[in-house]
Design goal:
about 425 residues; binds zinc ion; Serine Threonine Protein Phosphatase 5, Tetratricopeptide repeat; single chain; 7-stranded mixed sheet; alpha/beta; about 45% helix; 14 strands; 5-stranded mixed sheet; Metallo-beta-lactamase, Chain A
């Protein structure tokens, strides 16, 4: 399993997708928003929007959906029969930059510089070349002029991530906002990606105050918002935030917030993506900590770079006893680090990190699933089968493990 995070997403969204979309519906649909702006909506693995601005000179694409849908997406774009001039990326998440490889060398791919930071760098590990990295980055603002029309691209303050941007097209009166605005749901605040609840709430004020009243606000996952709808949404999240902070100051923890009667009236904001409520609450709690926990992978990767993997593992064990309240030692930390090492082809190091995670969390089926995947990458099929089997023992529903074992037994080499 790639990451706990992805699994969580797939579980949460599958029910939503099954409910909303019939079996025969196309995975990608095109909808006209204004005369020249079109929404391209993906329905699987979960509902995501990308947009096209069509001009006389060519197309400007804003986000490109999932890598798995890149070919199907390209077919839709080809139907416009125009050259793709620019590909703009609203932030670094996989569901927004999946088709970059299709435009590499043909169009200019633009994003905020933090997109490169998240895709290519991971603490002290050697930077890597990422197939979705942009060609051109900017810091604060960039204005494109195409066919005499302006496209104003601005970096937003850290909200859903620290790489978010807005794209305003005055001639169309549309403002594209990436994942800043949730789809009539709590928005997704990715704290590991530099996100911030306070920043998110401040971004709504910026989007409301600085654009005309008849602006159409377009989001990465939901329906278009009018300004009035955005004001209502923003007010509701402000009120939720004030109540939460009061409860937290009174000593309430995450479990308490989850079911607090004072927050029940906001439950309708969980109807589409239910899991985002917990992320939102976790982000609020984390921001209120005097000293937010740091990732344990920060010192561990430094040690890997300077002294090798064995010294890094010793460092992890040492810090777990000496600095237990400074660092985040959750299971997901080492899991993420293991995959970062795999991406860099540091296979021996990855195997050792996944081994450490499985030893630290021996009841976790996901830790064994990841360890098995690392052995698969190392060409050690015997250990891959052994740990996929262990994972399956802990979670008989782990279909990935089932399939991998079957495949490995059929083709042992
Ligand atoms: Zn998204």
């Amino acid at each position: 399993m790639k990451k706990l995070e992805m699994l969580l997403f797939l579980c949460l969204f599958s029910l939503f997708i099954l409910t909303l979309y019939g079996e025969n519906k196309e995975n990608i649909t095109v909808e006209k928003i204004t005369d020249n702006v079109f929404k391209i909506q993906f329905t699987a693995p979960f509902m995501t929007n990308s947009y096209v601005f069509s001009t006389d000179e060519g197309l400007i694409l804003i986000d490109t959906g999932f890598a798995d849908s890149a070919d199907e997406y390209l077919q839709k774009i080809e139907k416009f029969s125009k050259k793709v001039l620019y590909v703009l990326t609203t932030h670094f998440h996989d569901d927004h930059l999946g088709a970059h490889s299709k435009f590499r060398g043909k169009s200019t791919i633009i994003a905020h510089s933090n997109v490169i930071k998240h895709l290519c760098n991971y603490y002290s590990l050697p930077p890597m070349k990422h197939s979705s990295a942009p060609d051109l980055t900017f810091e604060e603002e960039m204005i494109l002029y195409v066919s005499g029309k302006q496209i104003i691209i601005k970096h937003l303050q850290p909200g859903d991530t620290d790489s978010g941007l807005s794209v305003y097209i005055p001639s169309e009166k549309v403002l594209l906002t990436g994942d800043i605005i949730g789809p009539e749901n709590f928005p997704y605040c990715d704290i590991n990606g530099g996100g911030s609840v306070k920043g998110m709430l401040a971004n709504y004020q910026e989007l409301i105050n600085n654009y005309p009243d008849d602006t159409i606000y377009l989001s990465g996952h939901g329906k278009p918002y009018t300004k009035t709808e955005l004001i209502n949404y923003s007010n509701e999240l402000d009120e939720h935030y004030v109540i939460c902070t009061k409860l937290i100051k009174g000593g309430m923890d995450l479990d308490g917030l989850k079911t607090a009667p004072e927050l029940q009236k906001f439950e309708h904001l969980t109807k589409i993506f239910a899991g985002l409520k917990m992320r939102w609450l976790t982000a609020i709690l984390n921001e209120m900590r005097a000293n937010p926990l740091e990732s344990i992978n920060k010192p561990v990767t430094k040690k890997i770079a300077n002294s090798g993997i064995d010294a890094a593992i010793e460092e992890y064990k040492h810090l777990k006893t000496s600095d237990a309240t400074k660092y985040n030692f959750s299971e997901n930390e080492l899991n993420v680090l293991g995959y970062e090492l795999l991406k860099r082809k540091m296979i021996t190091e990855a195997v050792k990190i996944f081994e450490l995670n499985a030893a630290e969390f021996p009841e976790s089926w996901n830790a064994y699933d990841s360890l098995a995947e690392a052995y698969l990458n190392a060409g050690d099929n015997e250990n891959a089968i052994k740990f996929y089997s262990k994972s399956l023992e802990l979670n008989p529903e782990n279909n990935n493990a089932k399939q991998q074992i079957e495949k490995l037994k059929k083709n042992p080499d």
